[in-house]
């Protein structure tokens, strides 16, 4: 039932976006299509991507094995969502196996999971339904507030700063973009592949 509801909600959002997009001229749409096709062809296969993600999450898991549990601090792990926690480009709505396993490992060792994303806050409830449906548990989620125009790195750095303000020590930050990881406020960062920005 959750899966059906999620897909229905997402289709509603997509339909709204498509309706707004009809205002764009036919000429502009036609010019954009070839670029999209070329980009899609340039991406590695789904299997290759999963393998390369797993190579990074294995390193993160080994690090957390040594770092946690730690009763001296309130440990937290920060995860990006699109093309990190979820397979947004390859299999929308599905969890990324290596990242889900890492989140579960961290929680078992006493760390809180926080999601930090540039998704607009209007999509926060749909995002939470999706994350819950695929098995994630978390202590907090940070989205982009309405009328916030910070660049992504500034937005996400502010979120991590707020997590620290709440008394947590961020022991690991996992994302697929430099803007997910830049700005500090994490003991270690782990970068998943983004193929020169094709997986944003």
CATH A-level architecture of the largest domain: 3-Layer(aba) Sandwich
Number of domains: 2
Q: What's the β-strand tally?
A: 5
Quick one: overall form? globular
Main sheet summary: 5 strands, parallel
Distance between the termini: 29 Å
Order of helices and strands: HHHEHEHEHEHE
Mean pLDDT: 85
Main sheet: strand order: 3-2-1-4-5
Helix content percent band: 40-55%
**Approximately how much beta-strand content do the residues carry?**
15-25%
The CATH superfamily of the largest domain turns out to be HAD superfamily/HAD-like
Q: Report the oligomer.
A: single chain
- Which structural class matches the secondary elements? alpha/beta
Number of helices, counting only DSSP H or I runs of 4 residues or more: 7
At the first level of CATH, the class of the largest domain is Alpha Beta
Q: Output the CATH topology of the largest domain.
A: Rossmann fold
Show unreliable segments.
1-39
Protein name: Acid phosphatase
InterPro entries: Acid_phosphat_B-like, HAD-like_sf, HAD_sf
Pfam family, one: Acid_phosphat_B
Keywords: Signal
Notes on the structure:
By secondary structure, the chain is α/β, with parallel strands linked by helices. It has 2 domains: 1-42, no CATH class; 44-191, HAD superfamily/HAD-like (Rossmann fold). 50% of the residues lie in helices and 16% in strands. It has 7 helices and 5 strands; from the N terminus they run H-H-H-E-H-E-H-E-H-E-H-E. The chain has helices at 2-21, 26-42, 46-67, 97-108, 124-133, 152-165, 178-181, and strands spanning 74-79, 112-120, 140-144, 168-175, 189-191. A 5-stranded parallel β-sheet has the order 3-2-1-4-5, sandwiched between helices. The longest helix is centred in the N-terminal third of the chain and has 22 residues, at 46-67. The chain is globular. Mean pLDDT is 85; it is low at 1-39. Residues 1-32 form the signal peptide. This is Acid phosphatase.
């Amino acid at each position: 039932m959750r899966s059906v509801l999620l897909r229905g909600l997402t289709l509603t959002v997509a339909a709204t976006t498509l309706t707004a997009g009809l205002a764009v001229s036919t000429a502009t749409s036609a010019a954009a299509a070839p670029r999209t096709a070329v980009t899609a062809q340039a991406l590695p296969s789904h299997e290759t991507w999963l393998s390369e993600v797993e190579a990074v999450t294995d390193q993160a898991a080994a690090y957390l094995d040594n770092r946690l549990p730690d009763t001296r601090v309130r440990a937290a792990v920060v995860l990006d969502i699109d093309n990190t926690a979820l397979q947004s480009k390859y299999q929308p709505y599905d969890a990324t196996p290596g990242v889900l396993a890492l989140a579960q490992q961290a929680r078992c060792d006493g760390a809180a999971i926080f999601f930090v994303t540039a998704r607009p806050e209007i999509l926060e409830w749909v995002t939470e339904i999706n994350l819950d449906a695929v098995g994630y548990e978390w202590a907090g989620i940070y989205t982009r507030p309405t009328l916030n125009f910070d660049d992504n790195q500034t937005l996400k750095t502010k979120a991590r700063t707020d997590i620290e303000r709440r008394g947590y020590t961020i022991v690991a930050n996992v994302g697929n973009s430099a803007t997910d990881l830049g700005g500090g406020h994490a003991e270690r960062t782990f970068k998943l592949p983004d193929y020169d920005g094709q997986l944003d």
